[in-house]
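G., the chain you wanted modeled:
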Amino acid sequence: MEQSLSPNNAFRYDAFQQKAIDIINREKSLIVSAPTGAGKTLIAEYAIEQALAKREKAIYTAPIKALSNQKFRDFHQRYGDEIGILTGDVSINPHAPILIMTTEIYRNTLFENPERLKKTAWVIFDEVHYLDDWERGTVWEEAIMFSPLEIQLLCLSATVPNLEEFARWIQTVHKREIEIVSETHRPVPLRNFYQCQGGLFPDPHALKKEGYLGRENWTASGRERRQRLYWRARPNRLEPLIRTLSREEKLPAIYFTFGRRRTETLAWELSDFDFLNPQEKSAVTELTQDLYDRYNLTRERSANEMLSLIERGIAFHHAGMLPTLKEVIERLFTSRLIKLIFTTETFALGINMPARSVIFDELRKFYGTHFANLRTRDFYQMAGRAGRRGMDREGFVYVRVNPHDIPYPEVMRIIYGKHEPVISQFNATYATVLNLFRRFGTNLPDIYPRSFHYYQSTQKGRRRGLDLLKQKLELLKELKYLEGETLTPKGEFASWLYGYELMLSELHATGFLDHLSEADLSMLLAALVYEPRKGTTPIRIKAPIHRLRETCENTLHALHYREEKFRIYPRTKLTHFHLSDALQAWCRGAKFHQLTELLAVDEGEIVRYFRMVIQLLRQLQFAPHSSAGLREKASRAVSLINRDVIDAEKQLRT
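Predicted structure as tokens:
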């Protein structure tokens, strides 16, 4: 059942929704915390409706481009040309009263073009708990810190225990009132089941007794391990589990894994299953063909291989796939013609794809720098996709457990433990420091106490945070990005290039960028943005690229020397030229399928990194003090790369 936004109709909001709506009507900032699937999005839509009714503006920020794109499609159906989107590689209707943005673009707008925010009544931060993401969380913190006081904030969050602390910080920073709306009740309750030792158990007691054989920890070592070799867990077979769900009418189901290859392997393992009746089979074939035609996928190898699964009601979905193919799978799933989808965790991040059941392949994942057992908050972000509001009386969560891999108390901690607090990851980029220096001059260190990091930290932690900020300022002064109270032309140029500012600015200052061809410039930018996945095979650098790599290595060596001197960490990232051959071929007009023969990189990764190159090229086009030649070259390079499947705007306009 879809909830209406109109307060004048007969629909009754949930209590927490009504409370939030009352606060929005009073034009007060608020934080809404509720479980996945509880109905937070409706509150955001109400704020948007109010802004439109008053001829004001609203901005909706999202943590990932996939979510930004989905929100644009959803809102465009409702609001038409009142909606625009800005994500770095996409700019559609950028002057619309309602703008969908990634959080990075909103943060950059605060520094670079604050005039664009005039008449903005609301900024909506979806998934604001992303503030504690180790890599990108600082962007959320900066965006909240520097939002104008006349703009009201609507922060949407999963369940977190330190909401009061988070709200007090915002009140301290902005000297503004901010209210909390917290909901712990799920409209569709969840029931947990455990697959272990080949059996299926309905409660933790049975799991411990029969799955763990009464023992809490099977991860013994040394002499104890040798003594316990007879402990051998029976395998958990996937087929019996899926048959059970099918027989008990607990499909559709989302199966979460933590590896791209794993999603594909498991989907193909079940290719003998067929979940569709003849009418559904006919409908899914017709819809898939229509979508393939629309997105030019009829000749794509990966899309055609997926067809045999789709026709059985099965699919997989991960970041390594073509974005257009992922979108087709999402549309098929929402049409209820896909009954079982194997996917990675990004499918749970805000994207509105509920199912009747959710299955966890395991309870351990890679957290940026290391493998660890799941956080409780992450478990419920995914588990919350189980149970469709208005369709299911309850949702079902199946956890596959191998006692050799995880102790019983850890299983209980993940599923029944307290949700983890949001912890600041504040670490301003050099570009952020430069933009703030332009605004605050030598008083910039006085800004640090406004951060959530300062608010949460001990005295020792605060000293470290302040020292890091001062050390970045000293490095920027030594490299001539700052002079007295102002930015130098070099500093102005760098202030537009978040994350890649030092490398590109140093190369620009020597004139190196001006002498590169369009393809060479693009290959350089690809080397900056590309991050090899673990286990990626090193490549042999061909002769034409030697000069590029040598110049980058020399520049990096000089930067790392200074960063070590000023005790700055993390250091400027390394360059990796794995995409060079493919990007050069693409610039010369190659077909997309030819790129996969040149690279051991997933199709979706190629698209993602090429789009990141486009985003950097556009920044070079408009960065202050870019030479005229560099601007023209960057523009030509964009036109060479931004075609066919790489063209993100084309995908959204389709």
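Confidence is low (pLDDT under 50) at residues 1-10.

Shout if anything looks off.
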